[in-house]
Design a protein that fits this description.
- The complex is a heterodimer of chains A (93) and B (198).
- Chain A contains 3 helices and no strands.
- Chain A is mostly helical.
- Chain A folds into 2 domains: 56 residues; 32 residues.
- The mean pLDDT of chain A is 90.
- In chain B, 80% of the residues lie in helices and 0% in strands.
- Chain B contains 6 helices and no strands.
- The longest helix of chain B is centred in the last third of the chain and has 34 residues.
- Chain B starts with 13 loop residues before the first helix and ends with a helix.
- The chains are: A mainly alpha (93), B mainly alpha (198).
- The interface between A and B is large, with 47 and 50 residues.
- Chain A: It is a multi-pass membrane protein.
- Chain A: Keywords: Cell membrane, Membrane, Oxidoreductase, Transmembrane, Transmembrane helix.
- Chain A: Its EC number is 1.10.3.-.
Chain lengths: 93, 198
């Protein structure tokens, strides 16, 4: 039974619950918008990275850099799209 | 077919390696799909017209339940893949079944949430905010729905054919898809719900 619950994945799950609890602080505690958003950015991206490495086994095989390269490139393009649009439409720059 | 026994079953052939890598490329395109939805949402989230704002319609309890359900399902399918690598087919099928049940629970809460939104006058056509909100949430929910059918098909196939390089490969790829849906939900939870309620 014990071998079905590897420590690495159990720890990953506990850690992701902790990150969720930390993110919840922005709702339950009174903090400024800027601080709250910073907390959310940090917790969300750590959590995403955790899923990628612990649960999706991204770094296990020989083609790991093709996998990471592809994912990071798409995240980069995604951020360019999101912030590029916000610059133009919402922040009037 | 050349089997590489130094690798887990799902990676054991060249075809399997390419299938998995191909699926990562697909997930890259999925990142971009959700990025365009987030872009639209962030651009339009304050254009509420005569409709309600996010702070008025978001509720923490159902959102938190949905988050825990999906996080747990992502963990459980990870255990399923671990069991698969140990060759424990019964445990693997149990974990996959629990995953799908948690996914079903998530979907139930989300449908309930959508009905509630429409009921309080925040439908798809109410404002730019509700339109982009419901499209983003709906696209994620449609992915989960598709995943439930896909996962069920995987379970049936593993039951019927046992663990072969092909079925292990398909199961692993399905687990990637499921984890990816959890990653997308983390961003929805953080930057749509929590940010909206802050």
């Amino acid at each position: 039974m014990k071998e079905l619950f590897p420590a690495k994945q159990v720890m990953g799950f506990v850690f992701s619950l902790i990150l969720t609890a930390v993110a919840l602080a922005v709702y339950f505690l009174d903090m400024s918008f800027a601080i709250g958003l910073t907390v959310l950015v940090v917790t969300a991206f750590i959590q995403a990275l955790l899923q990628l490495v612990v649960f999706m086994h991204a770094g296990e095989t020989k083609d790991k850099w093709s996998i990471y390269g592809n994912v990071y490139f798409m995240i980069f393009i995604a951020l360019i799209t999101i912030f590029g649009t916000l610059f133009l439409f919402n922040w009037d720059m | 077919m050349k089997l590489d026994h130094s690798q887990p079953l799902e990676y054991s052939t060249g075809q399997n390696n390419l299938n998995i890598f191909g699926f990562w490329i697909f997930l890259g395109a999925e990142i971009m799909l959700f990025a365009t939805l987030f872009t639209t949402y962030f651009t339009l989230e304050h254009r509420t017209g005569n409709g309600p704002t996010g702070a008025e319609i978001f509720e923490i309890t159902p959102v938190l339940i949905e988050t825990i359900l999906l996080l747990t399902s992502s963990f459980v399918i990870g255990l399923g893949i671990h069991a698969m690598r140990l060759g424990k087919i019964k445990a693997m099928i149990s974990f996959f079944s629990i995953t799908l049940l948690l996914g079903l629970g998530f979907l139930g809460f989300e449908i309930f949430e959508f009905v509630h939104y429409v009921h309080i006058g925040a439908g798809l056509q109410t404002s730019a905010f509700t339109a982009s909100l419901l499209t983003t949430l709906g696209t994620h929910g449609a992915h989960v729905t598709f995943g439930l059918f896909w996962g069920l098909a995987i379970i049936l196939q593993v039951k019927k054919r046992g663990l072969t390089p092909e079925t292990a490969n398909k199961s692993f790829i399905f687990s990637l898809y499921w984890h990816f849906l959890d990653v997308v939900w983390i961003f929805i939870f953080s930057f749509i719900y929590l940010k909206g309620m802050m």
